[in-house]
Amino acid sequence: MPIIKKLRSILIFSTLLLLVACSQKQTFSYTQPEDSIKAESDHFIAGVGIRDITPPPGIPRAGYALWSTTGEGFRTRLSARAYYMQGNNGQPYALIQTDLMAGSRILLARVAELVNEKTGLHAGNMTITATHTHSSPGQYLGSEFYNKHASHKNGFDPVFFEFLAQQLAAAVFDAYDNQVPAKIASGKKAVWGLTRNRSIEPFSNNKNHPHVEQTNAAVFHEINPYLYMLRLDGLTADGSYQPMGAFMSFAIHGTSIPRWDPMFNGDLWSYFQGDLQHQIKQHYPKAKHVIIGGFEGTHGDIAPAMPLDQSGYIWSKNVGSALAEEGWQLFRELENSLSTDSTIRIASRHIDIRDNPEINGTEICDEAAAGTTLTAGPYEHESPVLAWLPFFKQGSSRWFNTEGCHGNRLLVGGAWIQPWLEPKDSFPRDILFQLIEIGDLAIVPLPFELTAETGFRIQATVEQSYREKNQTIPEVMVTSLANGYTGYITTPEEYEVQYYEGGHTIYGRYSQPYVTQHIGALAADLLTHNKVMELPAQWQFQLPVKTFVEQQPLAEDRVRRVLSTPEYQLPAVNQEAYWHFDWQDITADHIALHQPLLSIEISDDQQHWQPLIHKGRPVNDQGYDLSVQLIDDQDGHAHYRAYWYNPVFQGKQVWYRFVIQPREHEAILYSAAFH
C-alpha cells in the first residue's frame, strides 16, 4: 500500500508539473456596442460569406491536450462561414460557423467590435460555433486554463487571434453585403450507424435509461441521432429563388484524425460540408452562393463509428461523405417548406457562474477543478500510462467525503495542491447563455461539450417553457462549444460513474441541472418579453500571451526553387497513396496558407497545360487531397513538401505537375512533369 501511495503522489506531481507554465499576462478589454434593430420587412433577409482561417505552420493544434502536436501545414483547409439573417420583425442575427475546436468569447467580443459600426451586430446577436475538429489551432480562447491545456503549449497568441478575428469579421461583412430577400426552412433527420456512444456505462446510469443493453450493438442506439438543418434560398436577378446554403448541427466528435498527425485539417467535417456543397451546386447550377457549414450538437459522449484503431483520412472521408448523403436528403426535403415569412427572437444573458453558483435551489461549485479521469483521456484516445493507472483510469472515484459539490470525483493533485499549481482564476467562469428563435427553429448554443442525455434534458426544458406560455413549440437544436469553451457537462447520474466526461465536468455534479435551469429561465423571459439582452458594458480578459510564429524579415538571398522531383508512394494499411515533391520558399510567417497555394495541372504533350478537373472538381488545395507541409524553416529560408493523395492515372501519354502559386515577390513555380 505505501508503494501505491508513493507512486500515486509521484504521478500526480509529475503530471501537474507538465501542465504548469508561466508567461507574461496581458489585459484585453472590449466595450459592448449598443443594441440596434432594423426596420420591419415583408421578407426574411439573408446573406452568406466565407473566409479561409488556415493557420501558418507553427501554431499548436488543439483538442488532444498534452498529446497534441504543432501544426506543420494543412491537409484540408479550415474555414469560417457567416450567415447573416434579418427576420420580418427587423431583428438581425449572425451565426458564424468555424472549423475550430471551439468558439471563443474573446473572439466573439473582438468580431463584434469590428463589425458593429457597419452591420449593427453585437455580441448579443451573434454566435460563434465550431466543428470541434481536434486538428485545428489553439491559443485563441478566452480562458487561461484552456489556452494551456487544449494543446500541448501554453499561451494566448495575440497575432494569430487577430488574424482569426479579421477573417471572421470579413466573412460577416461578405454575408451582410450580399444579403437579399430570402426563404428559409428548418428540419431534422435521424441518422443511424455513423456514430456510437463512447461512454455507455455512464449513459446507462441515467435514471431514465435503466435498461440499456450491455451489448456491442447498444452503443449505436444510445446517441443523439438527429441532424438539424436550416436551409437558406436567396432571390436572384431573374426573380427565382436559388440555394444560398445551409447550416447544420450534428452530434459527432471531430476525432477521426489521430492525435499524432501534424497537419491542420477539418476532420470528417471537411468531407461532410464539402460533399454536400458539391451536390447542391451540381443540382442547382443557377445558384450563385452556396455555403454549407456544420457545427457540433450534443456530442460529448458520441464518437465517429469507425473501426477501432483505424483513425485517419480514409475513414474520416467514409464517415464524412456518408453524412453528406444524409444531409443532401434533408436539404431536398426542406424545399417543400421554404417560406419568406419568419421572425427572429433573441435572448442573450451573461452570467459569472462563480459569483452566481445557485439558481432555483440548484447549486454548482463556486470554484472549478479538474478530475483525475480527465487526464486519462476518453475511450480510443486514452493518455499513455495514465489511462491504466488506479486513481486515473475511467471509473476512478473516491469512496469517502462525497457529499460536496464535486461529489465522488478525484481531483488532480487533490483539493489542496491543485489550486496551488492551477490557480482557480485560470478556469473559465463567464458564460453567455443564448436562445435564438428563427422561424420554426430554436437554437440553444452553449460553451460546453454536452452529453446526449444532457442535451435531451435541456431540449425538454425549452419545450416545456413554450408549452407553459401556450406558444407553438419549435424544433429545439441544442449545440455545444458555442462562444467559448468551459469543459464538459454530464448529468448527475453520468457524473457518478466518473469516466472522462465526468472528470472534465469542471463545475461539479450539478452542472447539468444548473445550466438547464438557466436555459429554462432564459426561454421563459424570451417568450414573455420577445427579447432579452443582458450583457455587461465591458468584457475583460487577462491572459498569458505568447507569439508562436515569429515574424521574420525576408532573406535578401532567398531563392524559390525545386528541391526534388516528384516521387510516388504506394498505399499501405490505412494509408492512401500519394505523389510528393519538395521546394524551397519564403518562411512560414510569409507563406500565407489561408490563400490558394497548390494545384495540379495536366498535359498530353508537356507543352500545353491546363488545370486538372477530376469528377467535376478542380484538383487543388481547396479540396481534400492536396497538402502542404513545412519541413524546415531557418535563416530566412523554408523547405516545404507538397502531397497529392489519391492521385489520378490516365496512362503514360498523360502528364501532371505540381503548381505553386506566387508569394511575396516570388514567381509561380512548377515541379517536374510526372506520370
Q: How would you sum up this structure, described in words?
A:
The termini are far apart. The chain is an alpha+beta fold and 675 residues long. It has two domains: 10-30 and 40-352 and 426-544, no CATH class; 561-670, Immunoglobulin-like (Sandwich), CATH 2.60.40. It is built from 13 helices and 36 strands.
- Name the average pLDDT: 94
Computed over alpha carbons, the radius of gyration is 25 Å
N- to C-terminal distance: 66 Å
Which outline best applies? Answer: globular
Structural descriptors:
single chain; 675 residues; alpha+beta; Immunoglobulin-like; 2 domains; eight-stranded mixed β-sheet; disordered N terminus
Summarize the structure in short.
By secondary structure, this protein is an alpha+beta fold.
Topology:
Layout: H1 2-19, E1 25-31, E2 44-52, E3 61-62, E4 73-74, E5 79-86, E6 92-98, H2 105-119, E7 126-130, E8 136-137, H3 144-149, H4 158-177, E9 180-190, E10 195-197, H5 200-204, E11 226-235, E12 241-250, E13 263-264, H6 268-283, E14 291-296, E15 302-304, H7 313-333, E16 344-352, E17 358-359, E18 362-363, H8 372-376, H9 414-421, E19 430-438, E20 441-445, E21 449-450, H10 452-468, E22 475-479, E23 488-489, H11 492-497, H12 500-503, H13 511-529, E24 531-534, E25 538-544, E26 561-562, E27 567-569, E28 578-585, E29 598-603, E30 610-611, E31 613-614, E32 617-618, E33 626-634, E34 637-645, E35 655-660, E36 669-670
Parallel strand pairs: 4-13, 6-7, 12-14, 16-24, 20-22, 21-23
Antiparallel strand pairs: 1-25, 2-5, 2-9, 3-8, 4-33, 5-6, 9-11, 10-15, 11-12, 16-19, 17-18, 19-20, 26-28, 27-28, 28-34, 29-30, 29-35, 31-32, 33-34, 35-36
Helix pairs in contact: 2-4, 6-7, 10-13
